[in-house]
Specification:
This protein is mostly helical. Helices cover 68% and strands 0% of the residues.
Length: 339
């Protein structure tokens, strides 16, 4: 807990609330705290503890609270869900909530371990500089903004590993291969039609590595983010995962985040037939958007930020249409497999 409390990134989040102090004094305080931390601890220690803290504070903790709320007050939670009461995690028997939570947490820990292994490989085995830039010098606001932009663009491109996974399995022709591919597809996140936040990191560890970890950590290595920039990037990613998979139609910000959540609902309801990328840009390029593309989402959000019941009805309508298109195909495949 001492290590967690000493992270200057957490004190940075409190700066807006310190209205009685000037911005210069706040930045000076933050710089002194950051410099002291870097000079008094091993860089790898700061990176690992900081990553764990952000994942816990901005993903695990809110996901746990959302799940507890859905379980404790289902009648109220159903009114906030885009799909209504069918979106409650405890609605279906054998929903395996504990399995989802356990595998999700295991993947997050595995991701931090891989991150530590990469840094160890770079600095101690190969003998080169660290993957992330860890110095007492603070990054400039412009540098942070540009790296965040590059990071989200590269993450959007990297997320299409999910599309590649989908296409590879559907390219298999033999009945036995099709049956096996169906099992592989439905054992991960696509097997859950009503997502909740923990589902964002629920998948086979190998699939999760290419689908979640690499698109998030990869940009930091390629562009060699400053550690603080990576912490900010990871915070945004964690919050996006938490809210976009929550199933709620009431979100902190309907602009962009609302569109991400709606596309994720449709992705889950159709068993992963489209809407593979987080922001929807790559889906727009590849023609894999379901229920409208990112351009339409932005236009709707700009016209009306009141999601509420409209979002729920829109998602239900989209889901019914997508399922009706695939209903005949699924039925035909099932008959062929039985034969």
């Amino acid at each position: 807990m001492d290590a967690l409390a000493s992270l200057p990134f957490l004190s940075f989040l409190l700066i807006p609330s310190m209205g009685s102090y000037s911005t210069s004094l706040n930045l000076l305080f933050f710089y002194m705290t950051w410099s002291t931390l870097i000079l008094s601890h091993e860089p790898l220690y700061v990176e690992v503890i900081g990553t764990l803290a952000i994942r816990f504070l901005f993903f695990v903790l809110p996901s746990t609270l959302f799940l507890a709320f859905d379980s404790a007050i289902p009648s109220l939670a159903a009114n906030l869900k885009a799909q209504g009461d069918v979106a409650l995690p405890t609605k279906k028997r054998g929903s395996k909530i504990y399995t989802v939570v356990g595998i999700s947490a295991l993947n997050l820990v595995l991701g931090v371990a891989l991150q530590a292994a990469v840094e160890t490989l770079f600095t101690q085995v190969i003998g080169i500089r660290s993957a992330l830039r860890i110095t007492t010098t603070l990054p400039t606001p412009w540098g942070i903004a540009m790296n965040l932009l590059k990071g989200f663009v590269l993450r959007e491109v990297g997320s299409m590993a999910s599309l590649a996974h989908h296409l590879v399995h559907h390219a298999l022709k033999s009945p036995s291969s099709i049956k096996q591919s169906r099992i592989m597809i439905t054992t991960g996140v696509d097997a859950i039609e009503v997502p909740y936040s923990f589902v964002a990191n629920y998948d086979n560890p190998l699939t999760w590595f290419f689908w979640r970890w690499l698109p998030t950590y990869g940009p930091g290595i390629i562009f060699r983010f400053h550690l603080l920039t990576y912490f900010i990037f990871l915070t945004f990613v964690s919050l996006e995962e938490t809210f976009s998979y929550s199933g709620y139609s009431v979100l902190p910000s309907s602009f962009v985040l609302g569109g991400i959540a709606r596309r994720q609902d449709v992705h889950s309801m159709t068993g992963g037939k489209g809407n593979f990328s987080p922001l929807g840009l790559m889906d727009l390029i590849h023609g894999t958007s379901l229920g409208g593309d990112v351009g339409e989402d932005v236009g709707e959000d700009m016209e009306d930020n009141e999601l509420g019941g409209l979002s729920g009805r829109a998602v239900e309508k989209i889901g019914r249409k997508a399922k009706s298109r695939d209903g005949g195909k699924r039925k035909g495949k099932k008959i062929r497999d039985d034969d």
